[in-house]
Design goal:
It is built from 15 helices and 21 strands. It has helices spanning 15-26, 41-45, 48-65, 80-90, 97-106, 165-169, 185-196, 215-227, 324-342, 359-362, 381-386, 402-407, 440-448, 453-456, 469-478; strands at 2-11, 31-35, 109-112, 114-119, 122-126, 132-143, 147-149, 177-181, 200-205, 231-234, 238-243, 249-253, 258-261, 263-266, 270-272, 311-313, 365-368, 373-378, 391-397, 414-420, 425-433. Strands 1, 2, 3, 4, 5, 6 and 16 form a seven-stranded mixed beta sheet that branches. A five-stranded antiparallel beta sheet has the order 17-18-21-20-19, with helices on both faces. Strands 10-9-8-14 form a four-stranded parallel beta sheet.
Length: 479
């Protein structure tokens, strides 16, 4: 066996693992990263980047059609081949040369293969040649292996070769008929994308469309999907699935109704990629989500860090927030705290400290690129009430803002802020409407900074822009 020693070994070279390793190296330590697939991970090749590329062309076309003068210049529909080609370019044609080059330039060692923890601080990597290489970490091992799609135990589903999020993001052809099991973010975005690309889409949304968002957000997206020709079956649940010899997928509902499709996409949740990384060697359950403390060290059932506190987990695997940007946020905290502990420096682990991921608790921003777009940060009204916060909800018609009327004819949208009445700060904010994703960061700053409402009066929005909704919401609150 070959043997290599580093200060830190990271298992998983997605955006989270890359950021952990980068922070560690920037802090003066050495780092190695282990990857069994493509460097860059899910987000680069099968999620964030390719899916948003699939959605963007249709969004641009819709925007043009909503503005007189531009509308008349539109003479055709989407060029599907061009859309898929642009998607391919953003996925780097599923080659990771560029990402590998970045690792080299950052001074991060790459070991390709399946990484497994074999003992405290020791990771064994088995590549395609079957020859194991042992990596030893002086200070920390970080698990950043992400998550995969959950396939439910529906009779016949596995045999029907369903699409999961990966297959949808990387599809090289648009199916004539697409059935989607699920109603969350992936299901809603892919229904939006494939309907625009020409598929006849049926959405089986047992728990509703975007059930974790503010109710008005899910309602508006449902209406928009239906207007785009999507058959949205609220409350529908698949009882069995069968693909016949001709390739047609037959889905039987619990009420006996049947749906036929050329492909079926399952988008109902995620599972951690921890099945084969050696968790058993440290007393943890293979395939389980990992629990972490405030500084993202892996802890056991007793809440104490594993062993001599050398094992960390960042990103999806710790189940705090399954979003790439939050995983990268965690990665920066993990990298910095490992460096601090290695150098004997003070650890800032109090609320909003440098070495903790406080924003995971109540300040998570998210955009959903459906039509209309949804942009939110912090708590929904329901979640705030569940958390015991005494709230006031303030709503405003986003279409009534002058900037919205200029942005698109017939602009329809909605804005909501959720105010903590005891502290007079915003704890939740949601926007629904065309092109609202780029408006979110102001709300994120207000929530994270816990900016008092009386100070926000002095943050003057420019006229005539859609951001004037901030003034209108504050006026509504003050009445």
């Amino acid at each position: 066996m070959d043997s290599n020693t580093y200060d830190v070994v990271v298992i998983g070279a997605g955006p989270v693992g890359e950021n952990v390793a980068d922070q560690v190296v920037r802090g003066g330590l050495s780092a190695a990263i282990v990857e069994r697939e493509l460097v860059g991970g899910e987000c680069s090749y099968w999620a964030c980047m390719p899916t948003k590329a699939l959605l963007r062309s249709a969004a641009a076309l819709r925007a043009a059609r909503q503005v007189p003068g531009a509308r008349e210049a539109v003479t055709g529909g989407l060029d599907v081949a061009a859309v898929l080609g642009r998607r391919d370019s953003f996925a780097a044609h599923w080659k990771d040369d560029g990402q590998v080059g970045w690792l080299d330039s950052a001074g991060i060692a790459l070991h390709r293969g399946q990484g497994r923890i074999v003992s405290a601080g020791v990771v064994e990597v088995t590549g395609d040649d079957g020859v194991p290489v042992t990596l030893t970490a002086r200070h920390a091992v970080v698990i950043a292996t992400g998550s995969g799609s959950l396939l439910p135990d529906i009779p016949g589903l596995h045999e029907a070769a369903p699409w999961a999020s990966r297959e949808a993001a990387a599809a090289n052809a648009v199916p004539g008929r697409l059935a989607i099991i699920g109603g969350g973010v992936v299901a809603s975005e892919m229904a939006t994308a494939f309907a625009a690309l020409g598929s006849s889409v049926t959405m089986l949304a047992r728990d509703g469309v975007l059930p974790l968002a503010e109710p008005f957000a899910g309602e508006r997206v449902t209406e928009s999907l239906q207007e785009a020709g999507v058959s949205v079956r609220l409350g529908a649940e698949a009882a069995s699935v069968h693909r016949d010899e001709a390739g047609t997928v037959h889905i039987t509902m619990t009420d006996g109704e049947q749906v036929e499709a050329d492909e079926v996409l399952v988008a109902i949740g995620r599972i951690p990629n921890t099945q084969d990384i050696g968790l058993g060697a440290v007393g943890l359950m293979p395939g389980a989500w990992l629990t972490v403390d405030d500084t993202l060290r892996v802890v056991g059932e007793d809440g104490a860090p594993i062993g001599d506190e050398w094992l960390y987990a960042a990103g999806d695997v710790n189940r705090r927030v399954l979003l790439t940007h939050q995983g990268k946020y965690q990665a920066r905290a993990v990298g910095d705290v490992i460096v601090a502990r290695a150098k004997g420096e003070a650890v800032e682990d109090g609320r909003w400290g440098r070495h903790v991921a406080t924003a995971d608790e109540r300040a998570v921003p998210q955009v959903v690129l459906t039509e209309p777009e949804i942009a939110s940060v912090g708590l929904t009204a329901a979640a705030a009430e569940t958390a015991g916060v005494r709230i006031r909800v303030v709503d405003y018609d986003l279409g009534a803002v002058a900037g919205s009327a200029l942005h698109a004819d017939g602009y329809q949208g909605h804005a909501r802020m959720v105010v903590d009445e005891d502290r007079k700060v915003i704890v939740g904010f949601t926007l629904v409407g065309p092109d609202v994703a780029e408006l979110l960061h102001a709300a994120t700053i207000a929530v994270v900074g816990e900016v008092p409402l009386n100070r926000l009066w002095h943050a003057v929005p420019t006229f005539p822009t859609v951001t004037e909704v901030w003034l209108r919401l504050l006026e509504a609150y003050g009445r």
